[in-house]
């Protein structure tokens, strides 16, 4: 950029930032060597010397905040969150990954396992299976709690590969939900010979009668996850107990495959790029951000057609040729947010739940302080 | 838990079972409050689930300011949630409409 004396800068109306400072405030500048102006100016009095108030005003926030859904599927969604500070976007992301509860297999009671997969490896594989049950309908189970219908889901897996038959592949759809709880009896209760032997769980009612589990039985989200392979004569018999937990304890409880955001790329042509140079500029970009526009009389001009696709590889400004023509920036308060759910809850529900958790945190602090 | 001195305008608040998620957002909303002279947070030890938030104000009691910041954050969250659900609903309606047009 050309150096200009301070005295030659144009007058700026009261209550507004000079354009170059506004640009530094709202954009990350992606220069060929390194990005600059990456920090966010949070301090309320940062611009008080030029008469600009940088404090948080809820009215202002309400006016500026926007959400635009780009893609919404059963398991993933992409949306733009505009007008929000990165600290909030990051809080939502962190909560999605580590603080939203789901159900996952925590205890595995193995009666028989003669497969090649060792007990502990098999248990670990079982733990990682996403389970299609709404975690909001269950309670956390603390160490002293008995496994009951409101905190535990029990699955049974019993497969045997007959001698003389072909090898078997054990998949997640062979996990059968036991709405009445465990079927394995406790060894100590066998001696008493009561009518109903005590098992590893104490269910008072069948889970089928609760909520609407009878209409939508609990099962793994995906039926085709391979758990093990059995050779002739091998057998697996086990019970798996799933409980409610959070991603910060173990990643198996994370409700998202991943959740991430990126800032919106902004590609600006500072000067007109024409004819052969335009063609050359279009060719330098590996993701086709630029396009060519006919301006008539056989003249051509480069335009920025798909800035969203820009990966900021900086290939276009690596050579000296276009350094003066192209500016790569990122919009600091525009986040392209992507959520990939593991299947227990749809992604839009996950996001609203995440925001609710942050609200709960705030409320807790308020009650603690007053 | 609050660790202050006789001077109410400067305090350190210690929250257990919290991390960057809350502390960083609180620091953001505190910094945007004109009554705050300084604020910052630290996690004294990575294996202890605790954050310390330091708030120094221009005169008003620090816990009042922190409470207000939490309230602001709460309102922001509620507004974001509301806006988000509206956007999702709009998108779903649009998709349903598109699907209907295709069938015709």
Automatic annotation (TrEMBL), chain A:
**Top-level taxon in the UniProt lineage:** Eukaryota
Q: Which PROSITE patterns match?
A: RNA_POL_D_30KD
Q: Which GO terms describe its cellular component?
A: RNA polymerase I complex; RNA polymerase III complex
- Descriptive protein name: DNA-directed RNA polymerases I and III subunit RPAC1
Family under the similarity heading = Belongs to the archaeal Rpo3/eukaryotic RPB3 RNA polymerase subunit family.
Q: Which GO terms describe its molecular function?
A: DNA binding; DNA-directed RNA polymerase activity; protein dimerization activity
- Pfam hit, one: RNA_pol_L
- The main location class comes to nucleus
Where does the record place the DNA-directed RNA polymerase RpoA/D/Rpb3-type domain?
Answer: 76-368
Q: Which UniProt keywords apply?
A: DNA-directed RNA polymerase, Nucleus, Transcription
The UniProt entry, under PANTHER family, shows: DNA-DIRECTED RNA POLYMERASE, DNA-DIRECTED RNA POLYMERASES I AND III SUBUNIT RPAC1
Q: What InterPro entries does this protein's entry cite?
A: DNA-dir_RNA_pol_30-40kDasu_CS, DNA-dir_RNA_pol_insert, DNA-dir_RNA_pol_RpoA/D/Rpb3, RBP11-like, RNAP_Rpo3/Rpb3/RPAC1, RNAPI/III_AC40, RNApol_insert_sf, Rpo3/RPB3_RNA_Pol_subunit
Q: A single GO BP annotation from the record?
A: DNA-templated transcription
Its annotated compartments are:
Nucleus
From TrEMBL, chain B:
Sequence intervals crossing the membrane: none
Matching entries from Gene3D superfamilies are given as: RNA polymerase, RBP11-like subunit (3.30.1360.10)
The protein's matches in InterPro entries, at most eight in alphabetical order, are given as: RBP11-like, RBP11-like_dimer, RNA_pol_Rpb11_13-16kDa_CS, RNAP_AC19, Rpo11-like
* UniProt KW keywords: DNA-directed RNA polymerase, Nucleus, Transcription
Cellular compartments annotated: Nucleus
Query: What GO biological process terms are annotated to this protein in UniProt?
Result: transcription by RNA polymerase III; transcription elongation by RNA polymerase I
Q: A GO molecular function for this record? A: DNA binding
Residue ranges constituting the DNA-directed RNA polymerase RBP11-like dimerisation domain according to the UniProt record: 11-81
Q: Which Pfam families match?
A: RNA_pol_L_2
Major place of residence: nucleus
Question: What GO cellular-component annotations does this UniProt entry give?
Answer: RNA polymerase I complex; RNA polymerase III complex
Coiled coil (UniProt feature): none
Database matches in HAMAP family: RNApol_arch_Rpo11
Family membership: Belongs to the archaeal Rpo11/eukaryotic RPB11/RPC19 RNA polymerase subunit family.
Protein name as it appears in the record: DNA-directed RNA polymerases I and III subunit RPAC2
Q: What organism is this sequence from?
A: Heracleum sosnowskyi
Q: What is the lineage of its organism?
A: Eukaryota, Viridiplantae, Streptophyta, Embryophyta, Tracheophyta
């Amino acid at each position: 950029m050309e150096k200009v004396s301070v005295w030659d800068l144009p007058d700026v109306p009261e209550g507004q930032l000079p354009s170059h400072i506004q640009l530094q405030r709202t954009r990350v500048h992606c220069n060929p060597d390194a990005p600059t102006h990456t920090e966010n100016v949070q301090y309320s009095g940062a611009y008080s010397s030029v008469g600009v108030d940088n404090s948080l005003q809820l009215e202002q926030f309400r006016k500026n905040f926007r959400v635009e859904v780009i893609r919404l599927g059963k398991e993933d969604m992409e949306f733009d969150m505009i007008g929000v500070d990165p600290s909030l976007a990051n809080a939502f992301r962190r909560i999605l990954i580590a603080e939203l509860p789901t159900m996952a297999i925590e205890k595995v009671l193995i009666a028989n396992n003669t497969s090649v997969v060792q007990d502990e490896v098999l248990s670990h594989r079982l733990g990682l299976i996403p389970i299609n049950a709404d975690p909001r309908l269950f309670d956390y189970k603390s160490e002293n709690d008995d496994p009951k219908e409101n905190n535990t889901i029990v699955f049974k897996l019993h497969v045997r590969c007959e001698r003389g038959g072909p090898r078997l592949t054990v998949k997640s759809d062979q996990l059968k939900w036991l709405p009445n709880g465990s079927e394995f009896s406790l060894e100590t209760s066998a001696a008493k010979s009561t009518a109903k032997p005590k098992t590893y769980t104490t269910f008072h009612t069948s889970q089928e009668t609760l909520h609407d589990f009878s209409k939508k039985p609990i099962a793994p989200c995906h039926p085709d996850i391979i758990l093990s392979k059995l050779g002739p004569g091998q057998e697996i018999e086990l019970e798996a107990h799933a409980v409610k937990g959070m991603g910060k304890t173990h990643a198996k409880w994370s409700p998202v495959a991943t959740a991430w955001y990126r800032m919106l790329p902004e590609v600006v042509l500072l000067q007109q790029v024409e004819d052969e140079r335009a063609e050359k500029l279009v060719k330098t970009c590996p993701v086709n951000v630029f396009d060519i526009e006919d301006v008539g009389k056989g003249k051509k001009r480069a335009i920025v057609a798909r800035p969203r696709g820009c990966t900021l590889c900086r290939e276009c400004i690596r050579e000296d040729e276009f350094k003066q023509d192209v500016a790569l920036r990122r919009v600091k308060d525009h986040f392209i947010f992507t959520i990939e759910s593991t299947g227990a809850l749809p992604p839009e529900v996950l996001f609203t739940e995440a925001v609710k958790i942050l609200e709960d945190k705030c409320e807790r602090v308020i009650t603690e302080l007053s | 838990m609050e660790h202050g001195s006789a001077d109410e305008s400067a305090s350190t608040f210690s929250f257990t079972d919290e991390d960057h998620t809350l502390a960083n957002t609180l620091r953001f909303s505190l910094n945007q409050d004109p009554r705050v002279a300084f604020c910052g947070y630290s996690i004294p030890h990575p294996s202890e689930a605790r954050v310390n938030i330091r708030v120094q104000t221009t005169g008003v009691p620090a816990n009042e300011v922190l409470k207000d910041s939490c309230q602001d954050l709460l309102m922001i969250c509620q507004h974001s949630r509301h806006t988000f659900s509206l956007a999702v609903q709009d998108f779903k309606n649009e998709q349903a409409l598109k699907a209907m047009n295709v069938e015709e």
